[in-house]
Amino acid sequence: MATFFSFIRAMANLKAFIRTGQAGDGREKALLDHVLQTAEKGNPQSVLEAIDSYSRRTSWLMNIGDDKGPFLDSALGKYNPRVALEIGTYCGYSAVRIASKMQKSGSKLLAVEMSPLNCQIATQIIDHAGLSSKVRVVEGKFDERLDAVKQFLEEMDAPFFDFVFLDHWKDRYMPDYLLLKENGMIRKGSGIFADNMGPVLGPADFKKYIKTHPEELETEEFKSNAEYMRWMPDSVCVSTYNLD
Ligand SMILES: C[S@@+](CC[C@H](N)C(=O)[O-])C[C@H]1O[C@@H](n2cnc3c(N)ncnc32)[C@H](O)[C@@H]1O
């Protein structure tokens, strides 16, 4: 019940939430303090558990969370990426989850986040998890930071991303997916993991595109619920990009 009211409080100021990427009551900074005080330094699992427990008991946060997180873990096992991209980092929960599961030597995640405050919080949380060397946080909107994305790929000596996690504002899934495709940043075999593809939150245009382009995106949908709210249905889509 506490999570429900906390979710409603965050949604009450939706315009500001969408503009700033923060709920407006300082919960994201309070989460950072909670993680620094309660999670074991250098232990990603301990950091994830601290964030999940805060998000269930204190304030709702829009992390992928512990209900849908296992689908992300499985996808990482399947694609085993060396070079990965996340669009929408928030406080760093998924970045910690992804980077801690990237097994290849020299593997690295590029985490793009539009909010400067979220970037600061995520950077400290990733550092507390001991994963700074595996994650680069880039501040800005994805479509405005293609320069930094290209530079990252060059530095990684990688022509494209093996794995992409889409978890930013839903109206940007479609245009940013097309940007990735047009810029050759995904290639045959790349995995695309999209959060919030369910009936309530899902982006209609991207859902329709996946349905109508099965030869391009071979997709499996996994049904679950929205983060920390078992009463709201949600799902994730895991797609393999299949064009040459
Ligand atoms: C749902 S949260 C991300 C949660 C995070 N992936 C996790 O699971 O821990 C969405 C985030 O996307 C950011 N965002 C929204 N539009 C963006 C864009 N075009 N480029 C980069 N970040 C964006 C917001 O500021 C917000 O922090």
TrEMBL record:
InterPro entries: SAM-dependent_MTases_sf, SAM_O-MeTrfase. Keywords: Catecholamine metabolism, Methyltransferase, S-adenosyl-L-methionine, Transferase. It comes from the Eukaryota. GO terms for molecular function: catechol O-methyltransferase activity. It is an enzyme of class 2 (transferase). It holds the Pfam family Methyltransf_3. One of its GO terms (biological process) is catecholamine metabolic process. SUPFAM superfamilies: S-adenosyl-L-methionine-dependent methyltransferases (SSF53335). PROSITE patterns: SAM_OMT_I (PS51682). Its EC number is 2.1.1.6. The keyword S-adenosyl-L-methionine applies. Belongs to the class I-like SAM-binding methyltransferase superfamily. Cation-dependent O-methyltransferase family. This is catechol O-methyltransferase. It comes from Picea sitchensis.
